[in-house]
Design goal:
Blueprint: H1 2-37, H2 40-45, E1 49-51, E2 54-55, E3 66-69, H3 99-104, H4 108-125, E4 129-130, H5 154-169, E5 174-180, E6 193-195, H6 198-205, H7 207-215, E7 220-223, E8 227-228, E9 231-232, H8 237-247, E10 253-256, H9 264-270, H10 295-302, H11 308-324, H12 340-353, E11 355-359, E12 373-377, H13 402-410, E13 415-419, H14 432-444, E14 447-453, H15 484-494, E15 498-503, E16 519-522, H16 530-538, H17 560-563, E17 576-578, H18 587-592, E18 610-620, E19 623-632, E20 638-647, E21 659-668, E22 673-680, E23 687-689, E24 694-696, E25 701-707, E26 713-720
Parallel strand pairs: 3-4, 4-5, 5-7, 6-8, 6-17, 7-10, 12-13, 12-14, 14-15, 15-16
Antiparallel strand pairs: 1-2, 2-3, 8-9, 11-16, 18-19, 19-22, 20-21, 20-25, 23-24, 25-26
Bound molecules: beta-D-glucopyranose (BGC).
Length: 721
C-alpha cells in the first residue's frame, strides 16, 4: 500500500512539474509568436518611454503600455497614465511611513504588509509597476534620500526588502527595486563616478539587490544615474550583464532611472532593456522617439549594426513580465484603495517604527490623568509631510500630524498649548519672538513635547528652499536647521520635563542639548497615521519597539564615510568618488575604530525590560543553531528585537569587529519568557576575498553575540569552525 501511495505521489508530482513546465513553454511560445508579428518599429517602441510614466505598447497586437508609479510609500494619484488627475478625493491614497521607518520596525512581516498595500492600490489605479522599494545603503547621514532607503546594514536591508517585494508582487503588480547601484548620495548624482573595492561592493552594497532578485523574485530593477567604475550605471556592463544577468540569472526588465541613459550602443549591448525618462526639453510636445533607445535603434537594426535577435530579447523580457502580471490576457486583481485595513497597516508600521532613543528616569510615558497642560512646540508638530521628498511624494487621503494625534488621544482631558517655535526657511536662525512665545508656553505646562528635526522638502528640492530630506539634494551638514538648537535650550531651561521628538530621514547633531534633555524619540516621517502613533507612544498606549536601522553619530566627522571616505566628491578636479571607507560602513566603522556614537545601530528603548539567558550554539558542519531565553522582566507587554552579531577575531583579511547576521522581533507579555532560535547558514561566517574573487569561510574561532543593540551585547559564545 505504502509503495502504491508513493508511486501515486510521484506521478502527481511529475504531472504538476510537467504542467508548470508546459505552461511556461506555452507562455514562451505565445510571447515568441507575438514578437514574430511585430515590426522593428513596434519593437523599438516598447523599449523606451511613451510618456513620463509609461513605456510603449502595440495597439495592433493588444499589447498595452507598461504603466509605472512612484513611489515607494504610496501610489501616484492619477488613474493609469501620468499627470491626468481625477481631480476629486479619489486621487488621494494611503500614505505609508517612509522606508527608513519601515526598516526601524525590524519586522519583515510588516514589510510584506507594506508591499501588499502598495500592490493593492496600484491595481486599483491601473498601475503595473511600483517604482520601489529604494534600498541603497545608507552610507552618509547627509544623503537627502536616506528617508526612502532602509539601512546601513546589508543584512537588515535584505530581510526587509524581500517581504516588501513579495507583498507587492503577490497582488500581481511588479516591484522595481532601485537604484542599482552606488547611488548613495543625491549630491552630484547625475555626474559622479563611484569607485569602491570589489569587497565593499559584494559585502555591503549588493546583498540587498541580490536578495531582491533571487529571494523575492523582483520583476524589474532600476539602473541609477551615477557612473560606476567609469561607466554609467544604467549602461554598465559589469553591473547589468556580468552580475545581474550572468551571476544572478535575472530574467526580468532592467529599466533606467529617468533620463539616466547616455549612449545608445552601450545601453543596448550592456543590458539595458527599457529607457525611461521625462522629455522635459520637448514639453509640451514630447518626442520619445528621440530617446537614446528610440528611433536610432530602428536604423541600427535595419542597417545590421545591432542584431534584431538582441532587440527581441529585450522585448521578450518586457512581454514576460507583462504576462507574469496578467497584462496580456486579463485577470488582474481589481485592487482596493483607502481601506480601513490599509490605514491600519500604516498605523502599525508607525507604531513599531518610531524609536525611543532616551528615557531618563522613565519620564515617559506621560500620564494623561496626571498631566493637566502640555505645551506642543515646533513646526513639525503641525506640518504635513506627505508631499515632501520629490518623486516619493504621496497625495495622502489624510495625514494625522503630531498635534492632531495628541488632540485625538487627549480630547478635552488635557489642555494643549501650541507654539510653532521656528520658521522653516533655509538659513533661518533663531527667531527671538517665536522663542519667547515658545518658552512662555513651556513654562505654563506640566510637560513639553517638542516636535522638530529635519523638514521634508516639498516638490523637488531645487525649487524649494526648505528642502532637507528630499530628492536631488543632500543636507549641507548635520546641524539642526532653523535655529532649533537655541530654541530647545531655551525651552528646556523653562521646563525640564521636555520630550524631544525628531522627524527626519536620519541623524541630526544633538550635542548642544542632549545631556540636558531627559527624553528623545525618532519619529521619521511616519505616514498618514504617524501623529496618532506618536501620541499613543508618548502616553503609553503603545509600547515602543522600534530600533535604529542606522548609527546616529555625535558629529558628522565621526562617521566612517566622512572620516575615511570621500564625500561628496571633488568636482573641481575630478568626478571620481572613492569609497575609501570600504566595508567600514555605519556601525562596522564605529565598532572597529572605537568611535563612540550618539546612538548605536540597533538601539531603541521600551517601557518594559528584557533579560537574556541561556545562550547555546549547536554547530552542524558550517551551520549553527543558536538558542537563548528571552524574558519580559517588566510590568507590561512589549517587543524586543533580539539581534545576533558574528565576530571573527584573527581572520585572514581584516574584518569589522562584528556584523549583524540574524534577528528576531519577539512580542512578550509581562513576565512571559520564550526560547528563541536563530539559524545561521555558512554565509553568516563568510567574507568576500577579493584576491580570490569569492566568498570564503576561514577555519578558526568565531564569536556569536546576542543583544539589544550593536553596543548592548548581553550574551556571547565562542565556537570553532
Ligand atoms: C528618481 C526615481 C524615480 C523616477 C521617476 C527619478 O528622478 O530617481 O527614484 O522613480 O525619477 O519619478
Amino acid at each position: 500500500m505504502k509503495k502504491i501511495t508513493a508511486l501515486f505521489v510521484f506521478i502527481v508530482a511529475a504531472m504538476l512539474c510537467n504542467t508548470s513546465f508546459a505552461q511556461k513553454q506555452d507562455t514562451l511560445a505565445k510571447i515568441n509568436a507575438l514578437i514574430k508579428k511585430m515590426t522593428v518599429e513596434e519593437k523599438v517602441n516598447m523599449i523606451h518611454a511613451s510618456s513620463s510614466f509609461t513605456s510603449g505598447g502595440v495597439k495592433r497586437l493588444n499589447i498595452p503600455e507598461l504603466t509605472t508609479s512612484d513611489g515607494p510609500h504610496g501610489v501616484r494619484p492619477e488613474h493609469g497614465r501620468d499627470w491626468q488627475l481625477d481631480g476629486d478625493k479619489l486621487d488621494s491614497g494611503t500614505y505609508l511611513p517612509v522606508g527608513v521607518c519601515l526598516a526601524a520596525t525590524w519586522n519583515p512581516q510588516l514589510g510584506y504588509a507594506f508591499g501588499s498595500v502598495l500592490g493593492s492600490e496600484a491595481n486599483y489605479r491601473g498601475k503595473d509597476v511600483i517604482l520601489g522599494p529604494g534600498i541603497n545603503i545608507i552610507r552618509s547621514p547627509l544623503n537627502g534620500r536616506n528617508f526612502e532607503y532602509l539601512s546601513e546594514d546589508p543584512y537588515l536591508v535584505s530581510r526587509m526588502v524581500v517581504g516588501n517585494i513579495k507583498g507587492i508582487q503577490d497582488q500581481g503588480i511588479s516591484a522595481c527595486v532601485k537604484h542599482y547601484a552606488g547611488n548613495n548620495q543625491e549630491s552630484k548624482r547625475f555626474t559622479i563616478d563611484v569607485n569602491m573595492s570589489e569587497r565593499a561592493l559584494r559585502e555591503i552594497y549588493l546583498p540587498g539587490f541580490k536578495a531582491a532578485i533571487q529571494e523575492a523574485g523582483a520583476n524589474t530593477i532600476m539602473g541609477s544615474y551615477n557612473k560606476f567604475r567609469g561607466q554609467w550605471a544604467s549602461q554598465n556592463h559589469y553591473l547589468l550583464t556580468h552580475i545581474l544577468r550572468n551571476e544572478w540569472n535575472f530574467k526580468g526588465i532592467v529599466m533606467s532611472d529617468w533620463d539616466a541613459v547616455h549612449n545608445t550602443m552601450q545601453a543596448l549591448w550592456n543590458g539595458m532593456d527599457l529607457e525611461m525618462g521625462t522629455d522635459l526639453h520637448m514639453l509640451p510636445n514630447p518626442n520619445y522617439g528621440k530617446f537614446w533607445m528610440g528611433d536610432t535603434v530602428i536604423s541600427l537594426v535595419k542597417s545590421g549594426k545591432f542584431p534584431e535577435y538582441l532587440l527581441d530579447e529585450k522585448v521578450r523580457r518586457i512581454l514576460y513580465v507583462m504576462s507574469k502580471t496578467k497584462m496580456l490576457d486579463g485577470g488582474r486583481k481589481k485592487g482596493e484603495y483607502n481601506t480601513k485595513s490599509h490605514q491600519q497597516t500604516a498605523a502599525k508600521i508607525a507604531e513599531e517604527g518610531i524609536v525611543l532613543l532616551k528615557n531618563q528616569s522613565n519620564i515617559l510615558p506621560l500620564n494623561k490623568t496626571a498631566v493637566k497642560t502640555i505645551a506642543v512646540i515646533g513646526y513639525n508638530a503641525e506640518r504635513k509631510q506627505s508631499m515632501g521628498g520629490g518623486s516619493s511624494q504621496v497625495k495622502a487621503f489624510y495625514e494625522v500630524t503630531p498635534l492632531q494625534g495628541l488632540h485625538n488621544l487627549l480630547g478635552t482631558q488635557v489642555n494643549i498649548i501650541y507654539a510653532k517655535g521656528y520658521d522653516i526657511t533655509r538659513g533661518a536662525t533663531a527667531n527671538a519672538d517665536l522663542i519667547t512665545e515658545a518658552t512662555q508656553a513651556a513654562a505654563k505646562a506640566d510637560a513639553v513635547i517638542f516636535v522638530g528635526g529635519w523638514t521634508h522638502g516639498y516638490n523637488y528640492s531645487v525649487w524649494s528652499d526648505n528642502a532637507y530630506d528630499a530628492e536631488d539634494i543632500d543636507k549641507p551638514n548635520m546641524q539642526m536647521p532653523f535655529g532649533q538648537d537655541e530654541l530647545i535650550k531655551a525651552i528646556v531651561k523653562a521646563n525640564s520635563k521636555t520630550v524631544i521628538v525628531l522627524m527626519g530621514g536620519g541623524a541630526i547633531d544633538m550635542t548642544q542639548w542632549i545631556d540636558q534633555t531627559p527624553a528623545v524619540l525618532q519619529s521619521w516621517y511616519a505616514g498618514m497615521e504617524g501623529g496618532n502613533a506618536l501620541a499613543k507612544i508618548l502616553f503609553g498606549e503603545v509600547n515602543p519597539s522600534g530600533k535604529l536601522p542606522m548609527t546616529f553619530p555625535k558629529k558628522l566627522e565621526d562617521h566612517g564615510s566622512h572620516a575615511l571616505g570621500e564625500y561628496p566628491g571633488d568636482t573641481a578636479h575630478s568626478l571620481l568618488l572613492n569609497y575609501y571607507d570600504d566595508i567600514y560602513v555605519g556601525y562596522r566603522y564605529y565598532d572597529t575604530y572605537k568611535v563612540e556614537p550618539q546612538f548605536a545601530f540597533g538601539h531603541g528603548l521600551s517601557y518594559t525590560t528584557f533579560s537574556y539567558s541561556d545562550l547555546k550554539v549547536k554547530m552542524n558542519g558550517k551551520k549553527a543553531t543558536v538558542t537563548l531565553t528571552l524574558k519580559n522582566t517588566g510590568k507590561q507587554a512589549g517587543a524586543e528585537v533580539v539581534q545576533l552579531y558574528v565576530s571573527q577575531p584573527g581572520s585572514a583579511l581584516p574584518r569589522p569587529l562584528k556584523e549583524l547576521k540574524g534577528f528576531n522581533k519577539v512580542f512578550l507579555q509581562a513576565g512571559e519568557q520564550r526560547t528563541i532560535t536563530i539559524q545561521l547558514n555558512e554565509d553568516a561566517f563568510q567574507y568576500y576575498n577579493d584576491a580570490m574573487n569569492k566568498w570564503v569561510t576561514d577555519g578558526g574561532n568565531y564569536i556569536i553575540m546576542v543583544g539589544s543593540s550593536s553596543k548592548d551585547i548581553r550574551l556571547s559564545s565562542s565556537i570553532k569552525m
